[in-house]
Design goal:
The chain has 200 residues and is α/β, with parallel strands linked by helices. 44% of the residues lie in helices and 21% in strands. The chain has helices spanning 19-29, 59-67, 87-95, 106-116, 130-140, 145-159, 174-190, 195-199, and strands at residues 8-12, 33-35, 39-40, 55-56, 71-78, 81-86, 99-103, 120-126, 167-170. Strands 2-7-1-8-9 form a five-stranded parallel beta sheet, with helices on both faces. Strands 4-3-6-5 form a four-stranded mixed beta sheet, sandwiched between helices. Helix 5 runs antiparallel to helix 6. The radius of gyration is 17 Å and the shape is globular. The two termini are 22 Å apart. 38% of the residues are buried.
Length: 200
């Protein structure tokens, strides 16, 4: 099932680049967007709730979903931790006649772009530098120095794939990045027929 647009927005970035903050801003200002909640086999963290931050599944449930072709895409991001996009989630958003928004890792973003092709706008959010990224991750206070260095190594590899995305958004100023991406998303929505007018 598709909405009038059948369009999707894909946002990917290294950890700490500001992706989730930018996506939350877009969700706050544009009612024609529907956020695609990912499924995961990892345990909830902190006050995360099922069906809000993620759909939490057991390892067996996730593997059964793979066997039964329930996912648009999936990946074992870390050993024993699966993440994926349920087909039912995209159908839910399209049934509401909205554009589906994905906040997803880089490999997943590339897979979704390959799947949806011209119906997708894929955006890579680029940190100003690896040093700036290290500072942001350190300021979070949630990871050990060793874990941060692992994230930095992964970020460097992920950044090498940025040219596979339709657009690279350099997030050296959050306010400017929010303003820039808001205009880009609005133009993408306007190219999707009457969906914007219907959902303003």
């Amino acid at each position: 099932m598709k909405s009038k647009s059948g369009k999707v927005l894909i946002f990917s970035a290294p950890s700490g680049a500001g992706k989730s903050t930018i996506v939350r801003h877009l969700m706050d200002i544009y009612p024609f967007l529907g956020f695609s909640i990912s499924a995961t086999s990892r345990q909830p963290r902190g006050d995360e709730r099922d069906g809000v931050e993620y759909y939490f599944m057991s390892d067996d449930q996730f593997k059964d979903g793979i066997k039964n072709n329930l996912f648009v895409e999936y990946e074992e991001v870390y050993s024993g931790h699966y993440y994926g996009t349920l087909k039912s989630e995209v159908e839910r958003i399209w049934a509401e006649n909205k554009i589906a928004v994905f906040d997803i890792d880089v490999q997943g973003g590339m897979r979704l772009k390959n799947l949806y092709g011209g119906d997708a706008l894929s955006v890579f959010i680029m940190p100003p530098s690896l040093d700036a990224l290290r500072e942001r991750l350190t300021a979070r206070g949630t990871d050990s120095p060793e874990a941060i260095e692992k994230r930095i190594m992964k970020a460097e590899e992920e950044m090498s794939h940025s040219d596979k995305f339709d657009l690279i958004l350099l997030n050296d100023s959050l306010d400017r990045s929010k303003e820039e991406i808001a205009g880009i998303v609005r133009a993408f929505c306007d190219s999707s027929g009457s969906i914007c007018a219907d959902l303003r």
